[in-house]
Design a protein that fits this description.
Elements: E1 5-13, E2 23-32, E3 35-42, H1 48-54, E4 60-63, H2 70-78, H3 82-85, E5 87-90, H4 91-97, H5 104-111, H6 122-135, H7 138-162
Parallel strand pairs: 1-4, 4-5
Antiparallel strand pairs: 1-2, 2-3
Helix pairs in contact: 5-7, 6-7
């Protein structure tokens, strides 16, 4: 019998407004027991159908600030309410209960969760996307995808650290 099936999700966007901005990357880390799979939807590959296909069979969806940003953005842009389809756990609130404040990167530092791309932030992620789109800069896309991957993979590390607090 397959074990517990969870997913960690983070999106990158062209800005903070779902009305005026687009989703550029959706990163998902799928975990079932010891089996892990990482998926990224990029640009035109991002749709309600493709996202739901990636999340098929997931029981619990983990995010950081996802209840205020990622899930509403996805609902607005793709028309999918992930909070109605999946059990959702926003790890930011678990951090707050453990007196861990600040953004995700600040919490990572407090808990000693390593990050290779320390200089990249949300603002830089937007710039990387536009360098890829406007200048065909494939290196910029590679850095953006690695940044998103670190965010998503570190969500699982955060959840594991929180379980020990």
């Amino acid at each position: 019998m397959p074990g517990y099936f969870e997913a960690y999700l983070d999106i990158e966007t062209t800005g903070l407004s779902p009305r005026h901005c687009q989703i550029t990357v959706v990163g998902v880390h799928l975990c079932r027991g010891n089996n892990n799979r990482f998926v990224q939807l990029v640009g035109e590959d991002i749709s309600a159908e493709s996202l739901l296909e990636v999340l098929q069979g997931v029981e619990v969806l983990y995010t950081y600030n996802g209840s205020r940003f990622d899930l509403p953005f996805i609902r607005s842009r793709l028309g999918v309410n992930l909070a109605e389809i999946f059990e959702h756990c926003d790890l930011m609130y678990d951090c707050w209960r453990n007196n861990l404040r600040g953004g995700f990167k600040a919490v990572e530092r407090q808990l000693g969760i390593p990050r290779r791309l320390r200089e990249v932030n949300g603002h830089e992620a937007v710039q990387l996307w536009w360098r890829y789109v406007n200048d065909y800069d494939r290196r910029a896309l590679a850095v953006l995808l690695e940044y998103n991957r670190e965010d998503v993979i570190n969500l699982k590390a955060l959840r594991e650290k929180l379980s020990w607090l």
